[in-house]
Design brief:
Two copies of one chain form a homodimer.
Chain A (H helix, E strand, L loop, with lengths): L2 E5 L3 H12 L3 E4 L6 H10 L2 E2 L2 H4 L4 E4 L6 H14 L5 E4 L5 H10 L7 E7 L11 E5 L8 H4 L3 E4 L6 H29 L3 H11 L1 H14 L3 H15 L5 H20 L3 H10 L4
Parallel strand pairs in A: 1-2, 1-4, 2-3, 4-5, 5-6, 7-8
Antiparallel strand pairs in A: 6-7
Helix pairs in contact in A: 1-2, 4-5, 7-9, 7-10, 7-11, 7-12, 8-9, 10-11
Protein name (chains A, B): NAD(P)-dependent oxidoreductase
Organism (chains A, B): Lichenibacterium ramalinae
GO molecular function (chains A, B): NADP binding
């Protein structure tokens, strides 16, 4: 049986933990300094709260935290991993750029543990539900294969460390990037008296986009403030030589504007929702 | 019976002309200074080549020319329309910004003719084929209704002059804009070792986008050089206060780069085509 440690336990971490528990793994976590909500989620998922020294004796350690916490978590774990005899493989599964993933690897360089780059695409698993796709890169020896044995939709990439992080970013280009474009389109049309005709034309010639936009807009508005940084991360990933970086700086500003509007009462947001409904 | 004049005869103009002839209209054109290809297309479509003075006696005059020629065509026709007793309604159906449409209207201000703003969305009609959508704005008296009687898919907008031109631009945001995003995504993935995984992930979670991209890329590459200006037109239309304008300046540069690559042998283009094929 494999022992897997997951740090920390947001909805995705808890969901992945639950899925691995259902798949027969022992799943550990460490809840030092976490609030009651994290604690509740971890208990419900069947995760065992243990000290960092025990986390460091697992077979695999998964880091599933907000992007801004990825490096700090690696730094916090480094001493325990260095002191451990069992040297688990450390998998950073966070939505970070390949550059940030390199900083995670650097933080663990002295630990003696293998560090693998990963990313998760899909929704957190529900009880007895489907696993999201769990991509790993920089794992030529397939050290993370036990994840598949315990039910994760494990997808090893034939690619070096960093490629999984890159995959997560490029994938967001066609989901959150397209949503930014669509929001700009609807608002531009409404502002210029072309809203009703645009809805009718999309229904006629792009029906699959209509359903997509109608679903994407209400989902996006409460998250717009978070997506600002994600769009800038994509721009940085593409780099100054790629003109597409400018598209993502623009997308960041589109989300920035929608987030500010939401703070101020949500007038633009309401226009956007009304303008994204399918034509009747 | 309605007499309609169409200037000039690219594939769209000839196709619309053919469709109206099939719908029972008399369709005129003027081929002064046009090449043998335009002449052939006009003859095949059943259009009659007449002097401008006779064009100016039609019931409706349609301008269907490249964006850069819209104002010049209006200026060229202005004297004949001013001299005409029958005062046809002039419809600018070109892919121009509302601002440029205003310049067309200004050029005809002294002619005594009503000027209507229009746009065409869809492919040129084939023999006995389907009409594209023909939107008009700024036509409260429905002067252009005879177009529907002769088979065009006529769509009057309850909106002022300029809204139809705006519609064409916002519609291009979600077709050519999304294609620019998709191209940037595929090239970013290939450059970072994530191409194969991206194709697999899109096939798994975004199958409708896969088909869309596979079709869009080979269609786009030979036209990328033209789309540069279209993307900048959208940026200008959105205006400096709309952060989405930056997305379209970025899209213009993406197309600029692909157009330059094509001139230089098409290495990027080949990567893009290979990376946009559905995963097997």
């Amino acid at each position: 049986m494999t022992t897997i440690a997951i740090l920390a336990t947001g909805a995705m971490g808890a969901g992945i933990g639950l899925h691995l528990v259902e798949g027969g793994a022992t799943v550990l976590t460490n809840l030092d300094g976490r609030g009651p909500e994290s604690r509740r989620r971890a208990v419900e998922a069947g995760l065992r709260d243990v000290p960092l020294s025990e986390v460091a004796r697992a077979d695999i350690v998964l880091s599933i935290v907000p992007p801004g916490s990825a490096v700090a978590l690696a730094e916090r774990l480094a001493p325990a991993l260095a002191a451990s005899d069992s040297k688990p493989v450390f998998v950073d599964a966070n939505a970070i750029s390949p550059e940030t993933a390199e900083r995670v690897r650097a933080a663990l360089a002295g630990s003696g543990c293998a560090v693998v780059d990963g990313c998760i695409i899909g929704a957190p698993p529900q009880p007895r539900g489907k696993s999201p796709a769990f991509y790993v890169s920089g794992d030529p020896d397939r050290l993370t294969a036990p994840l598949a044995q315990h039910g994760l939709d494990w997808k090893p990439m034939e690619a070096p460390f960093g490629a999984a992080s890159g995959l997560k970013l490029v994938y967001a280009m066609c989901t959150k990037g397209v949503t930014a474009l669509a929001a700009a389109m609807v608002l531009g049309a409404e502002r210029n008296g072309a809203g009703a005709a645009l809805r009718a034309e999309l229904a006629r010639s792009q029906p699959e986009l209509v359903g997509r936009f109608a679903k994407a807009m209400p989902d996006m508005l409460p998250k717009a403030y978070r997506w600002v940084a994600e769009m800038r991360e994509i721009a940085a990933f593409l780099g100054p030589d790629d003109p597409a970086a400018l598209m993502f700086e623009g997308a960041a500003q589109v989300y920035e504007r929608l987030a500010a509007d939401r703070e101020a009462g949500g007038e633009l947001g309401a226009t956007l929702l009304a303008g994204s409904k399918p034509a009747v």
